[in-house]
Write a structure and sequence with these properties.
The complex is a heterodimer.
Chain A lengths: L4 H7 L12 H74 L5 H10 L4 E11 L2 E13 L4 H11 L2 E11 L2 E10 L11
Antiparallel strand pairs in A: 1-2, 2-4, 3-4
Helix pairs in contact in A: 3-4
Chain B lengths: L2 H61 L1 H15 L4 H14 L3 E11 L8 E11 L1 H14 L4 E9 L6 E10 L4
Antiparallel strand pairs in B: 1-2, 2-4, 3-4
Classes of the chains: A alpha+beta, B alpha+beta.
Chain lengths: ~190, ~180
């Protein structure tokens, strides 16, 4: 059975208390609300993931810094050990440079003395504070004027250089004094005992 | 306030809480990023420092090679000396081996200044009277066998017996290498 719309409408009473439907634009509000909730949740998850990644990176960097620190410490220790050895080697070198044998010099002086000349006294002393330098004090009894030259040449042939030589003659004895520096000597030493 | 209002309030609070939590996580992430950046910068700086130190160590190794070989060569001579007593005994033995006429012999320990690696030495003062050849040969042997020995003073003069020479020597033997 068909009932005509117009007739049914006539049966309905007017419902004045019901508000008119919302405009279409305002119906989007709940949709936007749910969307924004979803978006915030997605963002929160994303930030959380980024936070975890950053924490892992921080741990990696901290580990790398700790490794670098350990390596730096090892290198510093090695440098310290090496510097200690270098200092020791320098000290040994200073000592050795001031300990060159004296016997060859004494022999050379003695062998330079010719017949008719006598070595009355020979004194060789290392200078205090500069062991590389020798103080030569020599007394020579001779009538040969060339004897002293021969002795000086013999000393020079051993590789010594003369500094501030002094010479005096008294009662036929030549007194000769000079500081000797070995030409092959390393830089000046300064140990004192 | 009806049920709908209460429901709305709860939903609004939940939404507010969610937003706050998200902001909190973002702030934490930003703070962590700053820490990572600072640490990365520190790591970079340490790596550069490490590189410099490695280069310096290599240069030091290279420059000190000769010096260290020198030390290695000389170390056994210093090690062989031992204590003052053993050095004294060794020297006395050496003097007896030379069969020289000994006039006097004196030992004392002395400190070596300005040399932190060699701090103590045995100082020996000895006087012999014998033939020229015997004396100087003995002196040469001693200097050859004890290359670390330093003769601080040598005096040669006429001896009391005819044909003899008097030799007064002062020498120092470092005792230990530190």
């Amino acid at each position: 059975m068909q009932i005509q719309r117009r007739i049914i409408d006539d049966f309905k009473t007017d419902r004045k208390d019901i508000l008119p439907p919302l405009p279409t634009v305002l119906r989007l509000i709940p949709v936007l609300f749910y969307c924004s909730i979803v978006l915030v949740a997605v963002l929160a998850s994303l930030f959380w993931l980024q936070l975890q990644v950053a924490r892992e990176r921080l741990v990696q960097h901290e580990r790398a810094v700790a490794d670098a620190d350990a390596q730096l410490q090892r290198i510093k220790d090695e440098k310290g050990r090496l510097e200690g050895l270098i200092l020791r080697a320098n000290n040994v070198e200073k000592w050795i440079a001031g300990s060159q044998p004296i016997q060859p010099l004494a022999v050379a002086i003695a062998r330079s003395i010719q017949k008719g000349s006598t070595l009355v006294e020979l004194k060789i002393t290392r200078k205090d504070g500069s062991a590389g330098q020798l103080q030569l004090d020599m007394r020579l009894a001779t009538s040969d004027q060339r004897q002293l030259d021969r002795t000086i040449n013999a000393i020079a042939a051993e590789g010594y250089r003369f500094i501030s030589p002094q010479q005096s003659v008294s009662n036929g004895v030549i007194e000769y004094k000079s500081t000797l520096i070995w030409q092959n000597a390393r830089p000046e030493t300064n140990e004192e005992t | 306030m009806n049920n709908k209002h209460i429901a709305l309030l709860i939903v609004a609070l939940m939404a507010f809480g969610l937003v706050q939590a998200t902001l909190w996580v973002r702030d934490k992430r930003d703070a962590e990023h700053k820490k990572v950046a600072a640490k990365a910068s520190e790591e970079n700086s340490k790596n550069q420092q490490l590189q410099i130190e490695r280069t310096q160590l290599a240069a030091l190794n290279q420059s000190s090679e000769g010096l260290l070989r020198f030390l290695e060569a000389w170390q056994p001579y210093f090690d062989s000396v031992g204590s003052a007593q053993s050095a004294e005994a060794a020297f006395t033995m050496k003097a007896k081996e030379g069969n020289l006429l000994s006039v006097s012999q004196r030992f004392e320990q002395a400190a070596i200044a300005n040399n932190p690696s060699l701090t103590n030495a045995l100082r020996v003062h000895v006087t012999f009277e014998d033939k020229y050849v015997a004396l100087l040969n003995w002196l040469g042997r001693v200097e050859k066998e004890y290359p670390t020995l330093r003769i601080t003073s040598l005096r040669l003069a006429r001896g009391t017996r005819a044909g003899d020479l008097r030799m007064e020597i002062s020498m120092e033997q470092p005792l230990a290498l530190k």
